[in-house]
């Protein structure tokens, strides 16, 4: 009985813990506001609506995190769910907990993600990140020496490294197109990809959102153009930053492969990703870790990674529920509103050059700015050392500037303090 009493006392204490009570209040406030009938654009600047969203994240507010493009925190209740799932796997015999209890629940996550992003669940693999998803495609598609792959000079370094390895190992050829910075002319972006195609082109890799600048590329048009060339050139889309930042459906893009990290804009636990492979492309695509015979056409063949925590993927379900409660359109409108707030302030200095288009169809949460008279690398270090503001210095041969990526938990006060710091640096230097 002592055990039972101790357990009940602990449970009662936990139920009354101020942190849990506060968390419950935050979520019910969010649930109430979720029913607000106003449109996304009106709600984007309504601080009452965004307060419980901000409070759903237990962040150290002595730091201003403007690098959510790197990876993002989970809302506290998602992180709590993660800890519970990890505890469960350790409390029960792990072979039972991981493989019999938890792993089968992947199917719910798969189905829900597929429904939300408009594809068939049998075309979605659950992975650890964009890198894994994209490597499966980049390394698993058969190519012959002399075959050409087209991508851009602004793609993510790891993805470029994968193709360079294939160049060195198999004699394929990587062709990189240069895109304007910024690029508001979709036709121009498509033309540049098209101009790089030769009769030997067998594959295209394109970023949905360029990580350097936040530029959104016209993926649907690039895919349509590729379909009409060389009997249909397959397109891999690097969607690391796009999914859950703004609304789209993967099916609507028409691409063959789409790889994403869910720990960026979905706010799922670190180490979660997804891979979409068109049904007819599953069988010919080699997995990174070979799967047992009989699974050639099964999307799950890409998930054969050996023993690993199942908790991360299971908690994607909690993150998706949170995302759905906020709503894709509201989130997208808020992220644009935040970008417009800091960009307008910096633009008023007359010394800001933006490497990201202003147009809402070409950018959402992420912006890149260069400030005349301020060295980008020194500015990034000064913002961190002096103000605890986390940004990224982009030092690429085609664009130099600070990458700024607030998120839904960022407050206006935090963005304004960033603006104050930049104005100070412009007026008085970085002393
Ligand atoms: C465009 C792009 N692709 C791929 C990745 C790799 O993402 P991860 O490290 O989550 O695999 C990143 C990371 O920031 C990225 O920006």
Question: Which terms would index this structure?
Answer:
431 residues, alpha/beta, Aspartate Aminotransferase, domain 2, Aspartate Aminotransferase, domain 1, seven-stranded mixed β-sheet, globular, binds pyridoxal-5'-phosphate
Describe this structure in words.
With 431 residues, the protein is an alpha/beta fold. It has 2 domains: 95-320, Aspartate Aminotransferase, domain 2, CATH 3.40.640.10; 329-428, Aspartate Aminotransferase, domain 1, CATH 3.90.1150. Helices cover 46% and strands 13% of the residues. The chain has 18 helices and 13 strands. It has helices at 2-16, 18-34, 40-43, 47-55, 76-91, 94-102, 106-116, 130-140, 157-170, 186-195, 219-227, 250-253, 279-282, 311-314, 316-326, 328-347, 376-387, 412-428, and strands spanning 64-65, 124-127, 148-152, 173-177, 201-207, 235-238, 257-261, 273-277, 352-354, 367-371, 389-390, 392-396, 399-404. The strands form 3 sheets. A 7-stranded mixed β-sheet has the order 2-8-7-6-5-3-4, with helices on both faces. The chain has a 4-stranded antiparallel β-sheet with strand order 9-10-13-12, covered by helices on one side. A two-stranded parallel ribbon has the order 1-11. α9 links the parallel β3 and β4. The mean pLDDT is 95.
């Amino acid at each position: 009985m002592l055990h039972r009493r101790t357990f009940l006392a602990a449970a009662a204490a936990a139920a009354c813990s101020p942190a849990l009570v506060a968390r419950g209040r935050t979520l019910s406030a969010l649930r109430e506001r979720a029913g607000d009938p106003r449109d996304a654009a009106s709600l984007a600047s309504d601080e009452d609506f965004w307060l419980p969203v901000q409070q759903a994240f237990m962040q150290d507010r002595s730091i201003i995190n403007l690098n959510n493009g790197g990876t993002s925190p989970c809302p506290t209740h998602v992180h709590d769910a993660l800890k519970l799932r990890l505890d469960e796997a350790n409390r029960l015999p792990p072979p039972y907990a991981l493989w019999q209890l938890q792993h089968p629940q992947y199917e719910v996550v798969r189905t829900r993600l597929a429904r939300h992003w408009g594809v068939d669940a049998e075309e979605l693999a659950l992975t650890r990140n964009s890198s894994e998803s994209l490597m499966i495609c980049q390394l698993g598609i058969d190519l012959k020496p002399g075959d050409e792959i087209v991508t851009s000079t602004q793609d993510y370094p790891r993805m470029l490294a994968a193709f360079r390895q294939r160049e060195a190992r198999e004699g394929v050829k990587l062709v990189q197109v240069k895109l304007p910075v910024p690029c508001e002319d979709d036709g121009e972006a498509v033309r540049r990809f098209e101009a790089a195609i030769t009769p030997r082109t067998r594959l295209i890799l394109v970023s949905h959102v360029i990580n350097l600048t936040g530029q959104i590329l016209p993926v649907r048009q690039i895919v349509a153009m590729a379909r009409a060339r060389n009997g249909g050139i397959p397109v891999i889309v690097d969607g690391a930053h796009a999914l859950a930042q703004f609304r789209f459906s993967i099916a609507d893009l028409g691409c063959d492969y789409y790889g994403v990290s869910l720990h960026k804009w979905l706010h799922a636990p670190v180490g979660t990703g997804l891979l979409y492979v068109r049904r007819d492309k599953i069988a010919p695509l080699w997995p990174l870790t070979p799967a047992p015979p009989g699974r050639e056409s099964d999307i799950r063949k890409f998930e054969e990674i050996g023993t690993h925590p199942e908790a991360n993927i299971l908690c994607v379900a909690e993150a998706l529920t949170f995302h759905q409660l906020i709503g894709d359109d509201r989130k997208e409108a808020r992220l644009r509103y935040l970008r417009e707030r800091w960009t307008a302030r910096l633009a008023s200095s007359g010394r800001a050059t933006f490497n990201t288009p202003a147009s809402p169809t070409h950018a959402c949460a992420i912006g890149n700015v260069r400030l005349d008279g301020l060295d980008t690398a020194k500015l990034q270090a000064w913002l961190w050392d002096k103000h605890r503001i986390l940004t990224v210095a982009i030092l690429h041969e085609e664009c130099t500037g600070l990458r700024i990526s607030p998120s839904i938990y960022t407050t206006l006060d935090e963005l304004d303090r960033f603006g104050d710091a930049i104005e100070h640096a412009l007026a008085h230097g970085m002393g």
